[in-house]
């Protein structure tokens, strides 16, 4: 018998004991996911009518209905966006070489049938980009940072809505 065998047995007993009491339920797949995914797919997105709002709305639609179910909307997600740019790296000659782009979204989930706000929350993401001598390259880097931040916001909003719908079913 190896010296590792008692350790393995103890570890197996502990994992079995703690694993059986776990109350975590996955949000995807059979069971809970079968109830949550159609609810998420039935959300209509109302984002600001500017470039950044439309990027977020597109990403949210992809996140909320990845299977392309396209059911009739029963909920409305109203989003307000705030964008802030702050210098992150400043050289000795006061030239900024890197910025932090902060994108914050406050959102309300509204039931379309009666206009009642069911869930309200806010999320925030930061993406950084470099400033270079070529203005077009800097603009492209800034727009890429916006896209990355919007994509992360969409994922976080989807997660929060999924948790809301999962807890509402209980």
What does this structure look like?
- With 170 residues, the protein is of the alpha+beta class.
- The chain has one domain (25-168): Lipoprotein like domain (Double Stranded RNA Binding Domain, 2-Layer Sandwich).
- It is 44% helix and 29% strand.
- The protein contains 4 helices and 4 strands.
- The protein has helices at 4-20, 32-41, 51-64, 135-168, and strands at 43-46, 75-90, 96-111, 117-130.
- The chain has a 4-stranded mixed β-sheet.
- α3 (51-64) links the parallel β1 (43-46) and β2.
- The mean pLDDT is 85.
* Main sheet overview: 4 strands, mixed
- Strand order, main sheet: write it out: 1-2-3-4
Q: Helix and strand string, N-terminal first?
A: HHEHEEEH
Radius of gyration, in angstroms, nearest whole number? 22 Å
Shape label:
elongated
Structural class comes to alpha+beta
Runs with pLDDT <50, length 5+? none
The overall strand count is 4
User: What value does the average pLDDT take?
Assistant: 85
Strand content: 25-35%
Number of helices: 4
CATH topology-level fold name: Double Stranded RNA Binding Domain
Kindly give the count of domains: 1
CATH class: Alpha Beta
Work out the helicity level: 40-55%
Second CATH tier, the architecture: 2-Layer Sandwich
Summarize this, please?
This protein is an alpha+beta fold. It contains four helices and four strands; from the N terminus they run ααβαβββα.
